[in-house]
Each structure stands twice: as structure tokens, then as C-alpha cells.
């Protein structure tokens, strides 16, 4: 039995209290100095978010301008007026719009391009196989635009937006925060708006003096909290010292059959490997008596459990190899300081072998599930998955009164591509068309291949006008698409039908309405967008 001199426990407790006092005071003063840096980081993050949100809003305006120009350029009325050189007719079509200009070759016929910084989108007007003019949509960069972008991006005082144009824009560092002096010192984050000429850069700025207000007050509160904590430490120091001297008991192990049952229950409830890994880690620690553990995927830690202080040599257990599963999965178990015995190591390997089978089953289930809802050729949703999503989104739209639109698309004269270039070339055209769709929709939208050369796009929270604008943007993008096949270059066009809820109430009605609009686009010359008229029967 060990005997300690009288007062030795109190002396150690006193040392613990003094050490904690010193450490906490140092931490408090460090926090006082570090809070300023934290405040600056927060300001930089906020400015970056405002600049990027405003830049994204500007991109949306540019895309809308592109769609306006494309729609006007495709107008038969404008094409006839340009062929006749009829300036009054062109001016009547524009109806005093200031955001669009029409040129007949090099001559401005209607509208105007404002002087100064502006983003422009130009679409050629083609009739009878030749270019007869162009339509230019403009988005001027001025105070009204900055006010709108700031409002949409949630910019609030003292933050503000401004632009730099020309040489000043070229010298602005993009993608990072920096200090700038313009009468007073500002913290600024810059994002490119227009490549130029002239180049235009949008900057979100806030006065440097507004950053870090209240830092000293928080530091004083932190020091006060530290002193209060010391009173608690003085009471607990003795107890902590006694607990530290007690021998550490080995954690209770759970029966192996219970552990295997735990993994089986987890597999029954989910087939996602990311959710299984923490369960497998916990079960392995229960079975082996490990005090800490880590699950690792391809060198990255994905789950952690337990305390890593005072542990023995770790045991690494391989769950899957990169050669077999395409990625490396492993568990690293940390025992008590005395380590694992031989029997426990054998048990761990046996348990991990069973867990690896469970992970393989989950992985195979995921592959089968993806194949069941995905079109193999294009990677888009298949017809069955699309119909299920359409039914779900219709229920949500009816419940919350939100919009829902559907676009049905079909490649024009696709049979000619297969007949002339072969089915492999046709498959490549379908994949390229799918990439155009996927690259221009939002994360909440769903693009699908319904079969053959027929595709569909489901647009939650979107009305008919928004869907029509997207369809026109897609039509123009497809018309510019060139698919290289060996030495040949294939160009295609596409037709689009648009329908929306609540004009069409059920999934079948919505699909039928969009199909009828698509057939109308085909009958009227293809390479066009037709939207269901809500007032038509």
C-alpha cells in the first residue's frame, strides 16, 4: 500500500490551480488579440459572399438579356423588316425599349447602345441562309444597377458596392480581400463583372473602422469568465487529482454476437457507406475494448470516437482496398496503454471481415439503385425516375401554391444523324445534348431522357415565362453546339414545348400539354420554342 505525506494532496491541488490560472489568463489575452483577426475573417467572408452574390445576380441579368436578344432575332416580323430595310417597322417592334438595339448590317436601325461601361450580348439575325443584321441586348453598369444588385445580394450599411472600370479594374486583385484607401480606409473584395473593353470589376467594401467593434468588450468578458472558472477549478482540483491516481479500468466489452447484430441492424436501416462507417467503428470499439478509434477513407478521416490520451499502440484494420472497391477504407483502433492481447486482435480482424461484407453489400445496393433511376447513355434521370419526381413536385406545388413548369425537348431530324454517321455518332450527339441541358439548369431542377431523342426538364418554383426563357436559352446553345466525330463536325437543332402548373393540373395533363406544344414547334418549322397558352382550351 502506498502512503503519501500529509498535505501532499493539497500541495498538488494548489499547483494545479496555479497552472490552470496561468494557462487560462494566457488564453484570455491570446483571445483578446485573436478576436480582432476573427472579426476580420468574418468581414472578409461577408464581403466575399456579397460580391459573389451580386456577380451572380449580374450574370442572371446578362443571361436574360441574351434570351431577349435571341427571341427578338428569331422573330419572323423582325426578319421581314430587316430584309425590306424598313426602319420604322423595326422601331415599332422595339416599342421604345432602351435595353435592345437592332442593326441592319453596320447601320443602327432602332434602339441604342448606351455609352460607358455595359455588358452586351449580340445575336445575329439570319434569314434565307445569310446574316441580315444583329440584335444587341445591353445591361448598363450604373448606379441603378448597383442599387439593384446590392438589394438582391442583401448588402446592408456600412457595406456598399462600387465598380472600377478600365485600367483600375485590371489592377484590382480578384478573389481575395484587400485594404484600399479612398479618402478613408476600406476592406474590399473584388469580382469581375465584364471582361471588356472596358473591363469592369465589382467590389464589395466596408469601412476598416467598422471591423472589430466590440472586440475589447468581449475580451473583458472572457477574462471575467476565466476568473469565475478558477473558483470552480479550486473546488474540483482535489477530486481531479485523486481520480488521476486511480488505475484506469479497461472498458467493458460487449458480446461479439451483440456487435454483429448492431452492424446487421445498421445495414437494415441504411445502405449508405458513409452512415455505416461510424456504426462499424463504434461496434469494433465495443467488441475490442478500444478507448478511441478513427475511420479513414482514402487517407481522410471520416469518423472519430473516444479519448486519445494515454493509449497504447494503435491497430489498423483494412475494410477495403483501392484495387477492389475503388477506394481505401480502414479502421484505426487505440487500446488502453497495455495494448491489445492476441485474442482481441484476432477478434478485431474477424469482425472487420464481416463489416467489409456489409460495406460491399451497401456499395452494390447503391450501384443498383443508381442504375434503376439513371439513363445509362446520358447519365440523366430515366423516364421512371422522372415520372416519380413529377408526381412528387406536383403534390408540393399544390400544397404550397408554388409554381412548377415542364419543358419537353426533341432533337430535330435526329434520324438523319444516325443514317449518315452511324449510331455511335448518334449516341455522342445525345450525350452532348444532355451536357448542354445539365450545364444550364439549377440544382433543384431535374433533366431526364424520356427515350430516343426525347428529353424533359422539370423546373420547381418556376412559371411558364421562366421556363420559356430557359428553353430559348437552351435552343440557342444547342444551335451553336458542334459535335466532332472523326473528321466530321455535326450540328443539330432542337424543338421545345413548355407547359406549367396550375394551367395543367395533373402529371398526365402537364405531359400532354408540353407534348402538344412540342408537336406545334415541329409543325411550324422546328428549331423553336412553343409555350402552352393558359387561355386556350
Description:
- The chain is an alpha+beta fold and 537 residues long.
- Helices cover 50% and strands 23% of the residues.
- It contains 15 helices and 19 strands.
- The strands form five sheets. A five-stranded mixed β-sheet has the order 14-15-13-18-19, sandwiched between helices.
- A hairpin with a 2-residue loop joins β16 and β17.
- α1 packs across α14.
- The protein is extended.
- The N terminus is likely disordered.
What brief labels describe this structure?
alpha+beta; single chain; disordered N terminus; five-stranded mixed sheet; 537 residues; four-stranded antiparallel sheet
Low-confidence stretches: 1-10, 247-251
Could you give a short account of the major beta sheet? 5 strands, mixed
Alpha-beta content class: alpha+beta
Percentage of residues in helical conformation:
40-55%
Count of β-strands: 19
Strand order of the largest sheet: 14-15-13-18-19
Distance between the termini: 98 Å
Report the average pLDDT across residues: 80
Count of helical regions: 15
Estimate the global geometry from the Cα principal axes.
extended
User: In angstroms, what is the radius of gyration?
Assistant: 33 Å
DSSP strand (E) fraction?
Answer: 15-25%
Amino acid at each position: 500500500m502506498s502512503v503519501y505525506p500529509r498535505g501532499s494532496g493539497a500541495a498538488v491541488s494548489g499547483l494545479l490551480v496555479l497552472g490552470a490560472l496561468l494557462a487560462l489568463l494566457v488564453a484570455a489575452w491570446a483571445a483578446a488579440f485573436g478576436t480582432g483577426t476573427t472579426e476580420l475573417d468574418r468581414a472578409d467572408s461577408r464581403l466575399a459572399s456579397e460580391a459573389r452574390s451580386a456577380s451572380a445576380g449580374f450574370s442572371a441579368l446578362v443571361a436574360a438579356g441574351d434570351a431577349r436578344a435571341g427571341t427578338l432575332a428569331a422573330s419572323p416580323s423582325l426578319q421581314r423588316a430587316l430584309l425590306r430595310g424598313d426602319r420604322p417597322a423595326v422601331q415599332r417592334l422595339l416599342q421604345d425599349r432602351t435595353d435592345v438595339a437592332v442593326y441592319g448590317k453596320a447601320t443602327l436601325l432602332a434602339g441604342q447602345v448606351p455609352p460607358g461601361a455595359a455588358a452586351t450580348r449580340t445575336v445575329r439575325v439570319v434569314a434565307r441562309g445569310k446574316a441580315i443584321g444583329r440584335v444587341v441586348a445591353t445591361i448598363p453598369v450604373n448606379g441603378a444597377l448597383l442599387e439593384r444588385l446590392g438589394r438582391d445580394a442583401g448588402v446592408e450599411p456600412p457595406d456598399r458596392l462600387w465598380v472600377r472600370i478600365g485600367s483600375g479594374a485590371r489592377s484590382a486583385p480578384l478573389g481575395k480581400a484587400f485594404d484600399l484607401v479612398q479618402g478613408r480606409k476600406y476592406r474590399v473584395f473584388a469580382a469581375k463583372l465584364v471582361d471588356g473593353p472596358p473591363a469592369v470589376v465589382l467590389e464589395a467594401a466596408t469601412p476598416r473602422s467598422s471591423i472589430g467593434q466590440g472586440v475589447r468588450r468581449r475580451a473583458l468578458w472572457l477574462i471575467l469568465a476565466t476568473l469565475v472558472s478558477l473558483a470552480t477549478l479550486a473546488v474540483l482540483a482535489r477530486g481531479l487529482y485523486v481520480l488521476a491516481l486511480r488505475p484506469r479500468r479497461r472498458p467493458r466489452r460487449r458480446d461479439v454476437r451483440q456487435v454483429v447484430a448492431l452492424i446487421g441492424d445498421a445495414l437494415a436501416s441504411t445502405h449508405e457507406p458513409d452512415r455505416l462507417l461510424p456504426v462499424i467503428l463504434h461496434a469494433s470499439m465495443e467488441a475490442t475494448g478500444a478507448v478511441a478509434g478513427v475511420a479513414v477513407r482514402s487517407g481522410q478521416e471520416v469518423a472519430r470516437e473516444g479519448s486519445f490520451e494515454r493509449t497504447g499502440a494503435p491497430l489498423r484494420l483494412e475494410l477495403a482496398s483501392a484495387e477492389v472497391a475503388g477506394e481505401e477504407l480502414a479502421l484505426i483502433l487505440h487500446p488502453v496503454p497495455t495494448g491489445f492481447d492476441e485474442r482481441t486482435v484476432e477478434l478485431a480482424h474477424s469482425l472487420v471481415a464481416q463489416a467489409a461484407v456489409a460495406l460491399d453489400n451497401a456499395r452494390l445496393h447503391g450501384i443498383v439503385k443508381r442504375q434503376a433511376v439513371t439513363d445509362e447513355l446520358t447519365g440523366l434521370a430515366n423516364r421512371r425516375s422522372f415520372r416519380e419526381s413529377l408526381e412528387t413536385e406536383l403534390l408540393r406545388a399544390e400544397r404550397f401554391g408554388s409554381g412548377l413548369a415542364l419543358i419537353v425537348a426533341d432533337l430535330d431530324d435526329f434520324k438523319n444523324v444516325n443514317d449518315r454517321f452511324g449510331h455511335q455518332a448518334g449516341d455522342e450527339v445525345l450525350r452532348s445534348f444532355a451536357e448542354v441541358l445539365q450545364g444550364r439548369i439549377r440544382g433543384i431542377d431535374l433533366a431526364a431522357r424520356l427515350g430516343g431523342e426525347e428529353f424533359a426538364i422539370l423546373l420547381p418554383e418556376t412559371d411558364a415565362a421562366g421556363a420559356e426563357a430557359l428553353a430559348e436559352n437552351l435552343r440557342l446553345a444547342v444551335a451553336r453546339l458542334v459535335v466532332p466525330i472523326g473528321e466530321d463536325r455535326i450540328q443539330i437543332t432542337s424543338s421545345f414545348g413548355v407547359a406549367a402548373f396550375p394551367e395543367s393540373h395533373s402529371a398526365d395533363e402537364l405531359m400532354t400539354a408540353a407534348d402538344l406544344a412540342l408537336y406545334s414547334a415541329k409543325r411550324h418549322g422546328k428549331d423553336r420554342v412553343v409555350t402552352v397558352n393558359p387561355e386556350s382550351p
